[in-house]
Amino acid sequence: MSLPRPYPADTYLGEGGEDSAWLRGPDQPAEVVFRSGGTCEYLATGDQTAGRFGLYRWTFGEDESGPDPHFHRSISEQFYVLSGEVRLHDGRGWVTARPGDFLYVPEGGVHGFRGGGRASMLLMFAPGGPREDYFETLARGEKMSDEERAAFMLRHDTHWV
């Protein structure tokens, strides 16, 4: 019988706790609106969590959109479907995920996602890299040469397969 994995080392070294929690209400507008009509809400950014994770609510527009299969070398990615249907690539092929379905993708795991019809999901990265610049740049639809786009993707740990 193996022993349970121990807790990580303490990061809070104070004595009595502190008032440091924060709440993001449901009435706050999405930080990113894509040309497709989809949105990305920043629930907890890597900056807000000291790099531990980034958590986003992703809502698709009416028409199907989403990235082709790719992988990340330094971050894991998690998907939890909240509403509608989302097609997720699990490294072997596309599967249809419905509310309550969860997909964990470790570093190096090939994945992709596609959705439409205002489907929504939680999208989490760990550790919390600077994904906000990635989302915001794509939403602006900035023109990039092939070389600039390749450098942008590498800067954001996105490797296409």
From TrEMBL:
Pfam family, one: Cupin_2
SUPFAM superfamilies reported for this sequence: RmlC-like cupins (SSF51182)
Domain Cupin type-2, first and last residues per copy: 58-122
Ranges where the record places region Disordered: 1-25
InterPro entries from the UniProt entry: Cupin_2 (IPR013096), QDO-like (IPR053146), RmlC-like_jellyroll (IPR014710), RmlC_Cupin_sf (IPR011051)
Protein name (database record): Cupin domain-containing protein
